[in-house]
Structure prediction request, 404 residues.
Amino acid sequence: MGNLAVVGLQWGDEGKGKLVDYLAGQFDAVARFNGGSNAGHTVVIGEKKHTFHLVPSGALKGKELLIGAGVALDPIILQEELFLLPDRVREKLLIDGRCSLVSPFDKELDIVLEKMRGDSAIGTTRRGIGPAYAMRALRLALRASDLLVEPNSSAPSQFYSQLGVDPKGFAAWVEESKRVVTGLVGDVGSRIVDIGRAGGSILFEASQGTLLDLLHGTYPFVTSSHTIVSYVPASLGIPPSEAGEPLGVMKCYTTRVGSGPFPTEIQDLTSDKIRSVGNEYGATTGRPRRVGWLDLVALRYAITLNGVKNIAVSKLDVLSEVKEFRACIAYRHMGSETRDFQRSLGHLHEVEPVYESPFSMQGAKYDEELPAQAKKLVEYLEVALGVRVSLISHGEERSRTIEL
Ligand code: GDP
Ligand code: IMO
Ligand code: MG
Prediction:
């Protein structure tokens, strides 16, 4: 088994957490490579639901857990998360010393900037992600390794006090953060190379989705890190040859949390039904997710960008409760039709989706075998997207997964 990279193909919440937990048994370690506690990855085992924000979703499979340099690490959220998990999870965790930290100042700034944006607010998770990555680019971020040296002598700490951040509060945060990460900080890149040399393999876990990528997503309504597979080696500090095969994850409809263009969005009884059956509420913020039909134009773009050959499709059970199934095959804009997502990016809020309704998924029942409707969907997606569907998810619980 080689390395594998699970990436989201839509606007996040595709079911990456469930899939990573499901697949983790086949790997030696699971590594997060992007984002921060803006992520909410849900794993359901029996009646018990776990939401991961920073800890890789392989935690409940007892795997080695790695948080790569490209992650924005909020030590306080990490502490809260570890508190809810068995002690052995902490023992499995290694955080790269180059992770920039999310400070309370970054979180305040996130809220202030959103207010200043007014009607053009991005609808961030308010987890301080944008400011933390901005501080990294300004070379003013504190990094995990900085916590292990005398804090007040570091340049970022002095800068924060000049910005008017209360030095006492800041020092208290540094002390608390130090307690959280002590014993966990190291070099994740070298660890991954060592695991590979010993014949082991790694599962890379993306947060967010391709359309939220800082460079290639629906800018400016995106997150502040890179969500695509190309970021795996850059973030973790490993050679591109170790980045592994990408496995794309998508829902069989579309959701989005926060603002920004969403061509196939629907706001009617069907979207209400999908939201309630699919429990479409943000795992991090609890906000209702915006709901829409499947968007093949956007998916083809995401598949090309990530070089995806295999996909996992989630939420098939939700469509069992819905009469209709629609897929957007093109966008109409100023009288002409296009299937080019990239060229539509500048006017995505103005395009009109062109739909087809090839079949209905209503009433499909899932056992070990795929029902006929689901087989149709798999065949349809394989032709429309030019990929192989290798996994189906038909329920939130871990076991509600079918390998094809
Ligand atoms: P992630 O951010 O990609 O890990 O996805 P989230 O965990 O934020 O959102 C996915 C939601 O759908 C969670 O509540 C999951 O428990 C749930 N889920 C995942 N797969 C399925 C599925 O196949 N069917 C249903 N009904 N729920 C699913
Ligand atoms: P997972 O990993 C869905 C969205 C926010 C907002 C935009 C910017 O669970 O799929 P940020 O706080 O990152 O500055 O917010 O990105 N967003 C997500 N949407 N799933 C996520 O993560 C998200 N992380 C950020 O809603 O629109
Ligand atoms: Mg999520």
